[in-house]
Amino acid sequence: MNSDIPLQLLGGLTAREFLRDYWQKKPLLIRQAIPDFESPIDADELAGLALEEEVESRLVIEHGERPWELRRGPFAEDEFSKLPEREWTLLVQAVDQFVPEVSELLENFRFLPSWRVDDVMISFAAPGGSVGPHFDNYDVFLLQGHGKRNWKIGQMCDSESPLLQHADLRILAEFHETEEWVLEPGDMLYLPPRLAHCGVAVDNCMTYSVGFRAPSAAEVLTHFTDFLSQFLTDEERYTDADAKPAADPHQIQHDALDRLKSLLAEHMSDERLLLTWFGQYMTEPRYPELVVGPEDVEEEDFLAALQDGAVLIRNPSARLAWSEVDDDLLLFASGQSRYLPGKLRELLKLICAADALHTDNLGEWLNDEDGSGLLCELVKQGSLGFADE
Ligand SMILES: [Mn+2]
After folding, report:
1. pLDDT at position 337, please?
2. Residue 283 lies in a domain
3. How far, in Å, from the CA of 1 to the mean position of ligand 1?
4. How is residue 6 annotated by DSSP?
């Protein structure tokens, strides 16, 4: 996409300008980011999702059994009828995986890598409802879907910032307000990581949070080294051939550190493995149990179905990305990776981007053994599946 076209979604900024001046740096309020936005789901439908076993949901009740009572879903229907008139919030995670129209909203954010997107969380709040002043370690776009919400932003925080005593919620003990706005449907607020914020419902309101994922340094190091260690043999060890006689046998000399550093550097600089791990990690599904393919698909039957007009769609819980290294391509699909020949580049791009795959857009790829084999593998793995109709 062209990064130099002013975008309504970014209040007339181009993607390049937004990334340069705001992304990960400072907040941005965008009035009518999506003009006349109408929420594709209403409060009852959102509550309906919160009844489902596979949906992750929470209720925050400001004056419940204790201050800021947190309840976790799935909920029973009568729980909603017993809620107070005011000051509670229902939060439903990853609605994009369950409601296609919500997933379509993400198309607006294609100026950012799709593998950085985590999910679209939707919250419904009764008047006065809020989850308290807090900060997140992730970037977020807060799109007002229905009703009005008052947003205040405050200081930059970190893990030292004082919190209220609470078993489950991270509510800031101090909030130093810097700005305040009332958002109406279609308005959007971008917040960089660690900026204190507090949103309070003015009336019954619904807010969409487009959240992003970024591994912590600790996660990168633990998970990458775990991944790496599968490829290392027990024989490969710290070695000290040609060591000098020890002046004091109890002292760890710095030449030992140098040997360790070169052992680490040799493995840490393996770009193929680093890329493979990263692609797998960033495409890990939020709910892996929802990415399950059919046990057996015969490639012949699979191709016949497509020729017969069947349509392949991405599993809404699957995550796809691709990359290249030397002359090879890498496809990452829901936490797995595979090396593929360079000739499949356009097919990989199509698989990652297209809403649906069928004979019209697949064309000659169905006559390519590697291409059709790949599609069939993705069906077996559960990242792609046949549409119902
Ligand atoms: Mn937040």
Report:
1. 97
2. no
3. 29
4. B
299 plus 263 within the same structural domain? no
| CA 180 to ligand 1 center in whole angstroms | 15
Specify the pTM: 0.94
241: in domain = no
Residues 177 and 31 in one domain: yes
**Could you tell me if 117 and 138 are in contact, meaning their C-beta atoms sit under 8 angstroms apart?**
no
145 alpha carbon – ligand 1 mean position (Å): 16
Q: Do residues 193 and 225 both lie within one domain?
A: no
pLDDT band at 246 (very low <50, low <70, confident <90, very high): confident
Q: Is 80 helix (H, G, I), strand (E, B) or coil?
A: helix
Residues 144 and 161 in one domain: yes
Please tell me the distance between residue 207's alpha carbon and the centre of ligand 1 in angstroms: 11
Q: Is 159 in the same domain as 60?
A: yes
Total domains, the chain? 3
Please indicate, yes or no, whether residues 220 and 183 belong to a single structural domain of this protein. no
**Ligand 1 centre distance from Cα of residue 318 (Å):** 25
Measured in Å, residue 20 CA sits from the centre of ligand 1 at 23
Q: Are residues 23 and 83 in the same domain?
A: yes
Residues found in the chain? 389
Closest residue by Cα to residue 330 from 119, 116, 115, 118: 115
Ligand 1 centroid to Cα of residue 197, in Å, is 7
What is the CA(122)–ligand 1 centre distance, in A?
Answer: 12
Give phi and psi for 149, each to the nearest 5. -130, 135
| Domain encompassing residue 343 | 288-386
Contact 127/201 with Cβ under 8 angstroms?
yes
Residue 270's pLDDT is 92
**Two structure tokens written together for 127:** 């008047």
- Residue 132 Cα to ligand 1 midpoint, Å, equals 9
Q: How far is the CA of 94 from the centre of ligand 1 (A)?
A: 15
Q: Please check whether residue 237 lies inside any domain of the structure.
A: no
268-306 confidence digits (pLDDT tens): 999 999 999 999 999 999 999 999 888 788 999 999 999
